[in-house]
Amino acid sequence: MKLTHKLCAATLLAVLGAAVALPNAVQAAEDPLNWSGKGTIKFTEDDGGDNTIDPTDPTKPIDPENPITEPTVNPAKGPLKVIAVTDLNFGDNKVAPASGNGWEYTAQAAEIVYKNGTKVVSPNFVQFKDTRADNQPNKHTVTAKATKFTNTEKQELKSAQLKFGHVKLINAADQNQVNAAGVPATQVVETDGTTPTTFVTQDAADKGFGQFILQFGDKADSTEADSVKLWVPSAGNKLSTSSGYSSTITWTIADAR
């Protein structure tokens, strides 16, 4: 009985020894000095919650307690979005004889208004984003269409054109995301309500991600109040002082994959 008991105990010890030794052998085969854990992260689609980048200093974060209230931010959600645009104010102008074959008027610089009432002069701009993160290139276009300039008496500024100059595209987070070749320095928009004009053609596979400012003029070179013109040909047009004229300018970002 004692011999049997000793043999069983010896056998059990051998089995336990083998069980304990096995993990050590595996660990040694990997690397006894290093071991790894995992880090995990998951992303969901950008569904809004953005605000305008501060056009007076694109590198400066917007103060959440004092956001921009004008221009109004588009409330729609989505990763491909026109966020905000400035109105184009061509001012109050005296009627005068046409110069050459028409009249040209210059848009004032934009006025940015903050929640606390602060107002700051800025170039006119369009802000948009493409934050799609679905393993495909961020290819898109940005276009503009403008309706006819009409007054309350339904008189029109026939064949008028909006002329944009000093056009540049800014991505404050990463300027390498800007495809400069796809942004003409000047552009013309017909005011017929149907013809789209392309301002941004982002067709580069390695660019186009993020939030952008399409800016007309720059405070640095004092062109913020001299970069958007309204051209009215004299042929077929008679200016009226009875009421102001207005047009709706619609900016569109579209997938270009």
Q: How would you portray this structure in words?
A:
This protein is mainly β and 257 residues long. The chain has 2 domains: 1-30; 68-255. It is built from 1 helix and 14 strands. The protein has one helix at residues 2-30, and strands at 68-70, 80-85, 102-106, 110-114, 119-122, 124-130, 140-146, 161-164, 167-170, 187-190, 197-202, 210-216, 228-233, 249-255. Strands 2-6-12-9 form a 4-stranded antiparallel β-sheet, with no helix packed on it. A hairpin with a 4-residue loop joins β4 (110-114) and β5. The model is unreliable at 1-28 (pLDDT under 50).
Helices, strands, pairings?
Layout: H1 2-30, E1 68-70, E2 80-85, E3 102-106, E4 110-114, E5 119-122, E6 124-130, E7 140-146, E8 161-164, E9 167-170, E10 187-190, E11 197-202, E12 210-216, E13 228-233, E14 249-255
Antiparallel strand pairs: 1-4, 2-6, 3-13, 4-5, 6-12, 7-11, 7-14, 8-10, 8-13, 9-12
Shape: elongated
Number of discrete domains: 2
Distance between the termini: 84 Å
In oligomeric terms, what are we looking at?
single chain
Poorly predicted parts = 1-28
Helix content: 10-25%
Count of DSSP helices? 1
Q: Spatial order of the strands in the main sheet?
A: 2-6-12-9
Rg: 32 Å
Average of per-residue pLDDT values: 87
Order of helices and strands: HEEEEEEEEEEEEEE
Question: By helix and strand content, what is the structural category?
Answer: mainly beta
Largest sheet: 4 strands, antiparallel
Strand content: 25-35%
- The total count of strands amounts to 14
